[in-house]
């Protein structure tokens, strides 16, 4: 794993995301890292993330896939350009498409483990496929199409 989380390399003024912003104390503050050619993140759900008692709310899972996907997209774009994470000018991505499949109920208790595979890297678009596992069992899969931050959001 690299030492710095992808999201900790985001510019100061773009670090307030509910899912991953380090400056959002009420958010999830997801942290993603490289693991070889794949990307990984972990998240510990809390009781407020309940769907049915004992099981994780699907919206939380979607949120984790969203932010692991966009973080992975940014890191993949830096890697494709042979640049250090967070170096200027920043490579910033937002979600164009978020697809989630819930394969089985996700137990509330274990740490959730996300693993991402970079499927496509273009100058303005990166596609990331992901799994979300609990107790080493894949509970959900996801796919994010991430596109470079539009001027309207900069
Ligand atoms: C930035 C620093 C970190 C910030 C925090 C992390 C973000 C956390 C994740 C989020 O929640 S972001 C918030 C939710 N997302 C948005 O609000 C984005 C709103 N949508 C837009 O602003 C535009 O639709 C968008 C910038 C995503 C795309 O518009 P463009 O006009 O720039 O896209 P364009 O039509 O040029 O398409 C570029 C490529 O993306 C593809 N694409 C665009 N929208 C798509 C879509 N919906 N589904 C699949 N592919 C899509 C499109 O096909 C094309 O692929 P190819 O290059 O291969 O031809």
From TrEMBL:
Q: Does the keyword Cytoplasm apply?
A: yes
- Which species is this record about? Pararhodospirillum photometricum DSM 122
Give the UniProt keywords, A-Z.
Apoptosis, Cell membrane, Cell projection, Cytoplasm, Fatty acid metabolism, Hydrolase, Lipid metabolism, Membrane, Transit peptide
What name has this protein been given in UniProt? Acyl-coenzyme A thioesterase THEM4
What are the subcellular locations of this protein?
Cell projection, Ruffle membrane; Cytoplasm; Membrane
Q: From which domain of life does this come?
A: Bacteria
Pfam families this protein is in? 4HBT (PF03061)
Q: Which SUPFAM superfamilies match?
A: Thioesterase/thiol ester dehydrase-isomerase (SSF54637)
Q: What is the lineage of its organism?
A: Bacteria, Pseudomonadati, Pseudomonadota, Alphaproteobacteria, Rhodospirillales
